[in-house]
Specification:
Distance between the termini: 17 Å
CATH superfamily of the largest domain: Mur-like, catalytic domain
Strand content: 5-15%
Pathway: Cofactor biosynthesis; tetrahydrofolylpolyglutamate biosynthesis
Oligomer: single chain
Order of helices and strands: EEHHEHHEHEEEHHEEHEHEH
Keywords: ATP-binding, Ligase, Magnesium, Metal-binding, Nucleotide-binding, One-carbon metabolism
Radius of gyration: 23 Å
EC number: 6.3.2.17
Number of domains: 3
Strand order of the largest sheet: 3-4-7
Number of helices: 10
Largest sheet: 3 strands, parallel
CATH class of the largest domain: Alpha Beta
GO molecular function, one term: metal ion binding
Family: Belongs to the folylpolyglutamate synthase family.
CATH topology of the largest domain: UDP-N-acetylmuramoyl-L-alanine:D-glutamate ligase
Length: 352
């Protein structure tokens, strides 16, 4: 995953924990030296930062023999270096927003096209509620995935020696039901991540986990039904995935999930820090809703007993003025703007 919050090792985790300094150093130099030895002598260049870390992450996961690798794309999807995975178990697209417009395009439709680039023939994909046109673009991208033939079907769950195997003619794309639909018997699913916007992320996570369990032979969690071309979809561009009863492990996973730096409250004596990494219009709006709720869901008192200070930083080509306007309802007393200057301290960053 990317970016990291404090240390680069956060990007490569095993069982939820960043790999150790020793493992990071070991695999970093192993991959670096191997690339250095085999690079093109004419065009002598090493992979860029994110590409190198992606190669290294794959190498770590292979060498450490993980059972399951969850890979988040860097930017977009179609041309992202993580997209070399040919046959993932399942693909997921979370809520779309306008970001990285110089790379992905300046409309939601263009960005949806990029995101849909991770879809693969015969590999189920899920997304959450999106605006109508971007959702239609995702549907079209899924339908563009063509038939693939493989000589040995064992890689796809077909018994070895089965000869040629024909995959699904396209990528089956489904829409995740709202999280409310999973809360049977009036039992609310507790989320470790604050903010109502995390409910759609949780619904997507449940669908991805269900597909992995089914690949491992665990059935009874609501099977997907293939939708025939021309079938009525009740006004939706894509079919709705079935709901199921979350397992105890799923319930615990949703409850115990942590994401430092996102909708995080840190009380420190007389000062309470509200941290979030929102950087798009939709995510800033979600951040404001969370902040107003986290700050006791009330306006700032006028008696001077509370002072609100905004500490703001933005990178890239984002429209910072537009983002700041969205923060006006928070009624900050002061604002501190952090420039993007970095200072490298060898002593403090050794081994990081």
């Amino acid at each position: 995953s990317s970016p990291h919050l404090v240390q680069v090792r956060e990007r490569i985790r095993i069982n939820g924990q960043p790999i150790s300094k020793e493992l990071f150093s070991k695999y970093f130099w192993l991959v670096y030296n191997r690339l250095e030895e085999t690079k093109d002598p004419v065009h002598a260049s090493m992979p860029a930062y994110f590409r190198f870390l992606t190669i290294m992450a794959f190498h770590v996961f292979l060498q450490e023999k993980v059972d399951l690798a969850v890979v988040e794309v860097g930017i977009g999807g179609a041309y992202d270096c993580t997209n070399i995975i040919r046959a993932p178990v399942v693909c997921g697209v979370s809520s779309l927003g306008i970001d990285h417009i110089s790379i992905l395009g300046d409309t939601m439709e263009k960005i949806a096209w990029q995101k849909g680039g991770i879809f693969k023939p015969g590999v189920p994909a899920f997304t959450v509620a999106q605006p109508e046109r971007p959702l239609e673009v995702l549907r079209d991208r899924a339908q563009e995935r063509k038939v693939s033939w493989v000589v040995d079907g064992s890689r796809w769950g077909v018994p070895r020696g089965g000869g040629l195997s024909l995959l699904s003619p396209q990528c089956p794309l489904y829409l995740c039901p709202e999280l409310d639909a999973f809360e049977g018997d009036h039992r609310a699913l507790a989320l470790g991540l604050a903010g109502t916007h995390q409910r759609s992320n949780a619904a997507l996570a449940l669908q991805l986990a269900r597909m992995w369990l089914q690949r491992r032979g665990c059935w009874g969690l609501g099977e997907l039904k293939e939708t025939l071309p021309g079938a009525k979809l009740e006004g939706r561009p894509v079919p709705l995935a079935p709901t199921f009863q979350p397992t105890d492990a799923m319930i615990q996973g949703l409850r115990d999930t942590e994401w430092l730096g996102r909708t995080q409250v840190l009380p420190r004596g007389p000062v309470t820090w509200y941290l979030d990494g929102a950087h798009t219009t939709s995510s800033i709006q979600a951040c404001v809703r969370w902040f107003r709720q986290a700050a006791l869901n009330q306006d700032k008192p006028h008696d001077g007993s509370e002072v609100r200070v905004l500490l703001f930083n933005a990178t890239g080509d984002r429209d910072t003025a537009a983002l700041l306007k969205l923060l006006l309802p928070c009624h900050f007393d002061y604002a501190v703007f952090c420039p993007n200057f970095t200072e490298v301290s060898v002593a403090n960053n050794a081994g990081e």
